[in-house]
Amino acid sequence: MTSSASASASSSPAPRKDPWDLPDVSGLTVGVLGGTGDQGRGLAYRLARAGQRVVIGSRAAERAEQAAHELGQGVEGAENAECARRSDVVIVAVPWDGHARTLEALREELRGKLVVDCVNPLGFDKKGAYAIRPEEGSAAQQAEALLPESRVTAAFHHLSAVLLSDPAVEKIDTDVMVLGEDREDCAVVQALAGRIPGMRGVFSGRLRNAHQVESLVANLVSVNRRYKVHAGIRLTDL
């Protein structure tokens, strides 16, 4: 090993020996792109209720500000670019058909940011929901390709927008599968998930494995429709 390689290796952060040893994320500002949609609003509400500073974004600042006012909990609203600039971590919760267009427009504002993609590429027909496989492999991999200077992870796919937004629900008993290339970035996302009562963030592999995680939502849609519930995911033996 060359001396330069040795220096590079020694300067890298040591991996966490305890997988449940997660960082303190209470001081981070979380932006939610698509924060006026059902999933985005629900995530913004839960994180803010847990004490996180949250900014929701929309293409129109006025719409974001109105949604933030309705949510309360100290949530702020801003136009998408301003939301991205003001945030340490940015959750992408936009509709699939606007995913690429939104990220392309925000490439500069998202440079160097930790981006959490929770978009599920789904189609619907008379047989119900079905998974779409993007050319890049998944929504998260599309985000990775469009944002080469951002740190892209994937998480929060399997959460019920109804439960997230219901103030009468104190706990949401579910696991959040977190995927990404950097374990420390994934640990931050796991810690954010863990701030919501009942939730647990679980590292679930690299972004190349995101397609099946995103696709599983089609199965959950079928479960929910058949049994009239808001099912989530719980991993056993952890």
TrEMBL record:
Keyword Oxidoreductase: yes
InterPro entries in the record: NAD(P)-bd_dom_sf, NpdG, P5C_Rdtase_cat_N, STEAP_metalloreductase
Start-end of Low complexity biased regions: 1-14
GO molecular function: coenzyme F420 binding; cupric reductase (NADH) activity; ferric-chelate reductase (NADPH) activity; NADP binding; oxidoreductase activity, acting on NAD(P)H
Record keywords, A-Z: Oxidoreductase
GO cellular component, one term: plasma membrane
Pfam assignment, any one: F420_oxidored
Domain (Pyrroline-5-carboxylate reductase catalytic N-terminal): residue spans on this chain: 29-121
Region (Disordered): 1-23
GO BP terms: copper ion import; NADPH regeneration
PANTHER family noted in UniProt: DUDULIN-RELATED, F420-DEPENDENT NADP REDUCTASE
NCBIfam families (UniProt xref): npdG
Entry protein name: NADPH-dependent F420 reductase
